[in-house]
Design brief:
This protein is α+β, with helices and mostly antiparallel strands and 82 residues long. The protein has one domain: 2-Layer Sandwich (Alpha-Beta Plaits). The protein is built from two helices and six strands, in the order βαββαβββ. The strands form two sheets. A four-stranded antiparallel beta sheet has the order 2-3-1-6, with helices on one face. A two-stranded antiparallel ribbon has the order 4-5.
Length: 82
């Protein structure tokens, strides 16, 4: 399952995300999206977790929680949160 993490701090790294999500299960891919022109973090990332139950556990455990000074917004990619 592909997850979208939004509202990320500018200081968050791909390794920070990998470690946070690894608590809930296997993480096969992390892509911290960067601004095309400035090459700075854009404030969101895509995380792939192959097991759907582990991905759901990560959503439950991390959504709307403080992460590196920001409140993390997390959902399944392609599904908008309200």
């Amino acid at each position: 399952m592909t997850l979208c993490a939004a509202n990320l701090s500018q200081q968050v790294t791909e390794e920070d995300l990998r470690q946070a999500f690894r608590v809930y299960g296997q993480v096969s891919f992390v892509n911290l999206i960067k601004d095309r022109f400035h090459k700075t973090p854009a404030g969101f990332a895509m995380i792939v977790m192959p097991d759907q139950l582990e991905a759901q556990a990560a959503i439950t455990g991390l959504h709307m929680k403080e992460f590196k000074g920001q409140v993390l917004k997390l959902n399944e990619a392609g599904i908008r949160s309200k």
